[in-house]
Amino acid sequence: MGQESETKAAKWVIEDGKEQEKKEKGTEDETREVLHDKQGQKFTYKDLLYKEFHRKLRLYAEDLPHGVGWGLSKTDKGIVLYIQYRGKIYARGMLVSQDVRYDMNCIDRMIQKALLVADNLSGIRDNGDGTISTKTGIVLPN
Fold it and tell me: Are 124 and 137 in contact (CB under 8 A)?
């Protein structure tokens, strides 16, 4: 079906994955460098951090269960991540610390926690063996 062998196809998928990781790592490194340069400028730093947070949310958007949405908002002190499901809104915020390491780590952790909350709200559970299932025990394809 369009490929010469499974081995060559697997090799291509691995190489393509590594290339994508390098590209994402390069983008994140560039963002870290720019954020590091803008640390003393509160509003510029927060704006750039907000843009990076938004970029990462777009990367994980396909992992959100059906019916769950999320968004960001800037406040005078930091950034708020909203999760919306069935008319209810859940929010979690972060204070901008002006330290690139802490702020980027906080963004990553908030996204991972938001994905867990979204899965819990929608009733999808990770079985720990590479499969996911609903509350009633129906195993879903990945």
Answer: no
